[in-house]
């Protein structure tokens, strides 16, 4: 029996008996839950391809500038600020990949590449400057009780004086939210150092996707009535997780940052699996599906095809994300 025919049979079996699949998923999660030890502390190693290759060495080098930061944290800040876009501009006149406003750049911008100038638009200057500024803020609040990294991030948002005044992260909702966002995003840029905890919502997302098997693909489709109930790849994954209360970004390369990244041998049903023609850059991801086990995913593959089971072990397999509610909430609305 060919793989294609085997999965046609499997698809029919799933449609007729979803209870079996749900038991399988629950069983996998019980085992995984018993094995999982959690991340157990932030890793300084970047997840594969998490930072565009052009900037990865800079982030690794300067992300270790002082104890209050690490490469994954620095990457999270850059992603939050600009989506790694060195030409980014904001309405508030923030500029470049690290989004410095002119006054802050004038004081804290450094010549990171030693070429004799300080160029806010050059990542070789801007990324080192972002790390240097973080470390400078950390030095201002080094005697404040509590977590040095969180105090540094709070200083970035509210100013060092507020952190000193309140003896830690100040009671400002905006500042507390900023600290949580960056520390949560840090997990999506760090290579896990141990097994990643299972997702509580994964089974529900799979259940939704299974019900859409056989639905024709529509580029840009989100399953609405106007779309005739059709989806593209990231529209399907977004809709599946929306049914379990998790709001994902619309496009695949932003969904990559919705949680930590399990290794291939640690995949569990419900993980999002991603594909790219550039395996060194998460911003180049072009396809996503929902892993269901056995080396297969449910995905909306392309125009002219239907939502179906497809193998994940292909040359363009990029990696996986275990979606978390906090991870999805931390993602910027535009990058």
List the helices and strands and how they pair.
Elements: H1 3-16, H2 18-35, H3 53-62, H4 71-82, H5 102-108, H6 123-140, H7 148-158, H8 160-166, H9 173-189, H10 202-211, H11 233-242, H12 252-255, E1 272-276, E2 285-293, E3 296-299, E4 308-311, E5 317-321, H13 325-330
Antiparallel strand pairs: 1-2, 1-5, 2-3, 3-4
Which geometry do the CA atoms define? elongated
Profile the largest sheet: 5 strands, antiparallel
> In sequence order, what are the helices and strands, one letter per element?
HHHHHHHHHHHHEEEEEH
State the distance separating the first and last CA atoms: 46 Å
The quaternary structure here is single chain
Helix content: 40-55%
Low-confidence stretches: 1-43
Note the total helix count: 13
Q: Let me know the number of strands.
A: 5
Radius of gyration (CA) equals 22 Å
Q: Per DSSP, what share of the residues sits in E-state strands of 2 or more residues?
A: 5-15%
SS-derived structural category = alpha+beta
- Largest sheet, order of strands side by side? 4-3-2-1-5
pLDDT averaged residue by residue:
88
